[in-house]
């Protein structure tokens, strides 16, 4: 998971803005508080999107295996059926689904 975040951070652009302004300490605290909330919201959104994409890819892979299994059943190719069945069972065990 850490490797995923590191690769994502390398791909995303970062901007640093330096501003000199006459602000009171209270205004500075408010600005940093808002910036921190924005950072946390961005992290949460990124995690949600990443999890959704992983689930989508997993579902597409499993459905493709099911389609190929159906075609192998129609053609009577038992070797391919057993190979696809083993892949589907491995996915079921790995992700804890039935």
Shape assignment? rod-shaped
Assess the beta-strand content as a share of residues: under 5%
Order of helices and strands: HHH
End-to-end distance: 25 Å
- DSSP helical segment count: 3
Residue stretches low in confidence (pLDDT < 50, at least 5 long) are none
Cα radius of gyration in angstroms: 24 Å
Q: Count the strands?
A: 0
Short characterization:
With 98 residues, this protein is an all-alpha fold. It contains three helices and no strands. It has helices at 2-11, 25-75, 78-95.
Describe the structure.
This protein has 98 residues and is mainly alpha-helical. It contains three helices and no strands. Helix 2 packs antiparallel against helix 3. The longest helix has 51 residues.
Q: Could you list some keywords that capture this structure?
A:
81% helix, 98 residues, mainly alpha, 3 helices, single chain
């Amino acid at each position: 998971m850490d490797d995923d975040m590191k690769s994502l951070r390398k791909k995303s652009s970062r901007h640093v803005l330096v501003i000199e302004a006459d602000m009171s300490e209270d205004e500075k605290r408010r600005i940093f508080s808002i910036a921190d909330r924005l950072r946390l919201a961005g992290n949460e959104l990124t995690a949600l999107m990443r999890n959704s994409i992983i689930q989508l890819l997993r579902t597409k892979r499993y459905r493709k295996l099911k389609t190929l299994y159906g075609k192998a059943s129609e053609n009577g190719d038992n070797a391919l059926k057993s190979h696809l069945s083993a892949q589907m069972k491995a996915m079921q065990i790995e992700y804890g689904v039935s």
